[in-house]
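Today's session is about reading a structure prediction critically. Students often jump straight to the picture, but the first step is always the sequence itself: look for stretches that repeat, for charged clusters, for runs of hydrophobic residues. Only then move on to the predicted structure, which in these notes is written as discrete structure tokens rather than atom positions. Here is the chain we will use throughout the hour.
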Amino acid sequence: MSGLERVFLETISRENLLPAGKDVFAAVSGGADSVAMLHLLARFASGRGWNLSVLHVNHGLRNEADDDEAFVRNLAEHLGVPCKAFYPDAEESGSIESRWSRVRQNIYSSLEETVAVAHNSDDRAETVLLRLFEGAGLRGLGGMDYTGVDGVVRPMLDLGREEIREWLQASGLQWREDLSNGDTGISRNRLRLNVMPVVQKNFPEAVRGICRSGSVLSMWRDLQDGLTGMVQGDSFSLSRFRDLPEVLASLVLWEMAGRPRKGFAEFEKTAKQLKRMRKGSHLLPGGRRMECDGETIRVTCRGFGRY
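Below is the predicted structure for this chain, in token form.
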């Protein structure tokens, strides 16, 4: 067993990602990471009792999209694994990357089976940095975790991009190259192609360190979830609110406002105002209005204006 295979299995066991007898969809684009993940899952499926299938999303955006699908179907057939393709409609809002990420997540969420995706440690480090550049809070800076929304798991998260390709090459396995990965109009590609090589040249352990920080921050994010669990519904006692530490008071407002990704400084400012004033209203990030009648804080209405 190779070192990469050992790390792969250790991650799955340590994080309890794929218990025996689990029905698993491997999300395979045809790229190096997802192809490696499929080969690894197929290699250990019988011994681990996994019921493995392949999921491919054909966005139809590139001329090579149908060739990618054909490659994935042929690979699945070669491995003796069922394959299901999806052909979603495009979303209109957001960047290309975020739109299609939402589309894929919607597909994953619609399935009863666990979906394994092939994000690696480099992806995780890039996500932490991108969120840092956006000014994200704890939730964003925690980055990718081993388990995602609605049963998504990331068994490749402890493996690096280059070691995955080296393993594929050493094993004589083929994959597809996505030409859009060279498009520097996409922010992640700019970071990956222009910034990360310089960082890693000067700080060889940077990816490992960033991932470790992301993991620590994700633990604080879990603590944050536990603390904000004290919020029930869309109202909160003003007297109780005033007894809270400022950070926790800001988190309560953030929770009541629907956990928007940006604008935490505004929640901090509003929390300080609420500790001084008795009545008033204020527009919050995410498009909701906070109102206080002197006894109760409510966040129930969408305010006027642009968000």
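Discussion point for the tutorial: DSSP finds twelve helices and nine strands in the chain.
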